[in-house]
Amino acid sequence: MTAALMLELRDLSKSFELHHQHGARLNVLRGLDLRLHAGECVVLSGASGAGKSTLLRVIYANYRPSFGAVHVRHDGRWLDLAKASPHEVLDVRRRTLGYVSQFLRVIPRVPAVDIVAEPVLQTGASPQLARQRASEMLHRLNVPERLWSLPPGTFSGGEQQRVNIARGLIVPRPILLLDEPTASLDANNRAVVAELLTEARAAGSAVLGIFHDEDMRDQIATRLFPMQALEAA
Ligand SMILES: Nc1ncnc2c1ncn2[C@@H]1O[C@H](COP(=O)(O)OP(=O)(O)OP(=O)(O)O)[C@@H](O)[C@H]1O
User: Fold this and answer.
1) 138, 142, 181, 221: which is deepest, by most CB within 10 A?
2) Predicted ipTM of the assembly
């Protein structure tokens, strides 16, 4: 049986208008096509500045593409995020499309365990169950228990990153976008993340990510998607 197509980019282009340079345009993505299936892990490769993060932000609808389509399978039907309403984008983000970046958005005074538990609460689960699931994730990612009840503002870079990954992976998502989520992790914790991603794929998630670490790439990528910087117009 062939795996379900989950995401399809068609003829996607993105350029930025540089307001400080008399409206010059910077072309970052041009005519890009990509298909992502359930259970795959496609890793974006290419030099710094090739547009890898921009591509993930366009898919997550942080940036609107200049041209082309971002078709996402949402609730069994196809939706073009390039044309979707803000309400539809929020619904897709809540139930279909997860995004884990390098940085945790710290909310003052909210303990780590509650930051991780929040996506579970949003599914309608009880606070007890959400906290239990959050504790399991934090434990798995080797975040010391003494930190769970503290807000992560003062945590180390790697500790914050692990809280961020725990939050990003705690609820299974049909499509997962990962922008270097393991950049500050040691080899042990990278291996845990690789394991969590393998489990997510086995459960049917389609993964698209940026990983500069070669070991990590070798462990998780089912395919590479090479990208190249374009010349400025
Ligand atoms: N909001 C923006 N406004 C203007 N230019 C931007 C914007 N976002 C990205 N760029 C430019 O787009 C190009 C691609 O950036 P991007 O961050 O996508 O590259 P990348 O491949 O992810 O690089 P790296 O591996 O260094 O993170 C860069 O030249 C960057 O300056």
Assistant:
1) 181
2) 0.96
